[in-house]
Amino acid sequence: MQRFQLVMDDKNTKTESRLLISELLTDPIVSPYMSRLQQEQPFTFRHSINVAYLTAEICLNKSPENNVRDVVMGALLHDIGKLDIPLSILTKTTQLTDEEFDTIKLHTIKGYELIKNEPLPQIAKDIILCHHEKPNGKGYPYHKSGDEIPNDAKIITVCDIYDALTEHRCYRPNIDYNAYEALKILVEQENITDIVYLLLAFCSEK
Q: 12, 129, 188, 194: most buried, per Cβ within 10 A?
């Protein structure tokens, strides 16, 4: 099992998911936000594409008849609020202070504020706001728990954490998690095992 890393023109990426993401990147509302993200924060843009691809694969296997496009749209835009977070914090190579971490955590609310008046599906907006909430109530920004968190947002939570753990991050230059280690962390800490197992099934194919 290898660490999965999306390249949009990679011949190994599955056509249905790739086409869906390509189509969403040309959406007249989504495109300006993603273009700005690509220009200003290419590392966040790449992460967002990876999360969207993983989300598409899980959704197409879990419930292909239900709002896959809307959920993948939310995955693409989930970190859009980081456009309003200082780059000096996002690219810091040493441990963040408590104050800096609190600033980064604002990206959920800032992202929601950016798009709340856009004619986007409500689930996409909920994903932007809730993708860091945790079933045990220890997430942010509102410490929601259990059924208070939309099920589709939980999919993005898993995919977001998986990609963050397995992708190189400037703040942990000497720590790299492989796919197995990342999935083990997700099973032990996130309590969303049904989604983690869908991700495991996907990663096992790579």
A: 129
